[in-house]
Amino acid sequence: DRALYVFKENEGIFRIFGDSDETFDVEPVDLKYKPIAAETVVAFDKRVWALCDKGIVAVNEAGLEVMSNDIQEELLRALITSVTLADVATMAWALPYESESFCTFFLPGDRDIQGNLGACIYGFTFQSRTRTWSKWLWLNNTSEGKTHGLVHPDNNKMYVADRYNGAAGDSYVFIERKDFANSDYQDDDHAAISAPVSRTMAW
């Protein structure tokens, strides 16, 4: 698809195509879905994704597909629960992870949970292999949400950053372990050694 996609906040999604100044043209892709956060516009799975006022969408030459129908109620609740659209517009962001086949959209949380806003505590993750969503909360003893992240091209690991906490000096950059061991699934605020889980199943 030899086209430039333009996501205009609070206006709609457009497509610019052509081969020269004389042939360039603009056409709307969809004006019903209005992008609300510039840092959530990302390329993933051969499409361009974005957080819009009515959900998360993906766009290519075939048109627009709403991807968040399965989580629509929870997504909209996260968007309207004590945070303003101005908060979402300035803080929400997305992280595509092509090699792991998922893309995560990070949103700021409820002020009653998060306190002073300044970072995103909710992550809505789409897994392209199974076409399913999961939601997780990044708020614990050493982290008050994430402000941005990337997948480093040299080691193919995910890096995510805490919000800057000024003089307190407790801001962090988190690096994915990716040791292909059970430690990959251990949160930072839990002990390294845990008691085994024992269960008995009877038929």
Structural description of this entry:
The structure is a single chain. The chain is mainly β and 203 residues long. The chain has three helices and 14 strands. The chain has helices at 72-80, 85-91, 111-114, and strands at 3-8, 12-17, 25-30, 42-44, 47-52, 55-60, 63-66, 93-97, 102-107, 122-127, 132-137, 146-151, 158-162, 173-175. The mean pLDDT is 82.
Number of strands: 14
Number of helices: 3
Give the mean pLDDT.
Answer: 82
Largest sheet: 4 strands, antiparallel
Low-pLDDT segments = none
- So what's the oligomer here? single chain
Q: What's the helix-strand series?
A: EEEEEEEHHEEHEEEEE
How is the topology of this model organized?
Elements: E1 3-8, E2 12-17, E3 25-30, E4 42-44, E5 47-52, E6 55-60, E7 63-66, H1 72-80, H2 85-91, E8 93-97, E9 102-107, H3 111-114, E10 122-127, E11 132-137, E12 146-151, E13 158-162, E14 173-175
Antiparallel strand pairs: 1-2, 2-3, 4-5, 5-6, 6-7, 8-9, 9-10, 10-11, 12-13, 13-14
